[in-house]
Each structure stands twice: as C-alpha cells, then as structure tokens.
Amino acid sequence: MRKAASPPKTRKASAVQATGACVCGAVRLEIDVPARWAWHDHAETSRRAQGCAYATYVGSYRSRFRILQGAEAITRFEDKVAGTTRSFCGRCGTPLTYERSHSPTMVNLPRALFDERTGREPRYHASLREAPDWAYTGAPLAPLKGYPGIMWERPRRKPRREIDDFL
Ligand SMILES: [Zn+2]
C-alpha cells in the first residue's frame, strides 16, 4: 500500500493569505493574514507618492510577504535622506511597497491593493500634522442638484458681519 502523499512544503506562515495586484495586473503579491498592523499615513511624502489625501497601509513582516508575479516589472525608488524605499509597477505606476530602513523586518503595502480582508483594521493615524486643509474629514454632505451620485460639502456660512462689510 502506497503512503499518502504529504502536502508540499511551503514557506507560508499562515493558512490564510490576502492577495493584491496593481492596476494593470502585471504585479501580484500576497501577505499572510493577519497583517502586523494597519494605519492611515497623512505624511506629505506618502500623499505625493500615492497621489491621494492620505495613504492607508498594512504592515507585514517581510517573511510573511511574497511577490507572486511580475517582479521584473517592479521599479524601486530609494530616498537615502529619508531612509525609505518605495516601489511601484513600472508599467502602470501603482504604488506597491513602502519600506523604512529603521524597521528592516517590515514591509508596508497600500491597503487598496487587496480585495480580501487583511486581518487588521486601520485604526491608527500617523503624521496628522501634515494633513492638507483640503482633505475630506467627514463634514456633512448634500446631493449636488443635477449630478446624480455626486455629493458636495456646502461652504461654511460667512459671519454676517463680513457680508455687511462688503456691501
Ligand atoms: Zn501594473
């Protein structure tokens, strides 16, 4: 009688993975779930690098992170002064990883890359002092007449005195 085949050996540290991909699909990656942590980064550098009001990252131990496909498409930018390295898909520009020299065992990934749950909710906010004054912070919104699906933030009412001064 033949012995049952043993499962293939894998380096995965968890039975559950979350997979992510860039916009064009050239790069696919995964982390073991749960991620180490997750947070919203309001720093100017992350805002520029990702082209958004703030970046939401999940942090993973490097040992729990793998590139599944498209490693040759990844371009890296090292900021030696800041001690950071950011990578992105060289084909479509999607930000992929954000690494910091002071925490070499960790790799940070935009939460938006993943469809599945990563096992961590982004409950922390970093660098809030660098948040821009145009970022949406949850003010009440109203429907914009004539544009279905568009909501808008009404301008704050000016104090009556300013209007009187103008007239
Ligand atoms: Zn891509």
| Rg (CA only) | 22 Å
Topology pattern, helix = H, strand = E: EEEHEEEEEEEEEH
Q: How would you describe the shape?
A: globular
Major pleated sheet: 4 strands, mixed
Q: Determine the mean pLDDT.
A: 90
Tell me the total number of β-strands: 12
**Span of the ends, CA to CA:** 98 Å
Strand content: 25-35%
Q: Which hetero compounds are present in the coordinates?
A: zinc ion
What is the number of helices? 2
What is the CATH fold-level name of the domain at 17-130?
A: Metal Binding Protein, Guanine Nucleotide Exchange Factor, Chain A
Describe this structure in words.
Helix content is 8%, strand content 34%. It has 167 residues and is mostly beta strands. It has a domain at 17-130: Metal Binding Protein, Guanine Nucleotide Exchange Factor, Chain A. Strand 1 (17-21) and strand 2 form a beta hairpin. The model has no long low-confidence stretch (mean pLDDT 90). Bound molecules: zinc ion (ZN). Zinc ion is lined by residues 22-24, 26-27, 89, 91-92, 94.
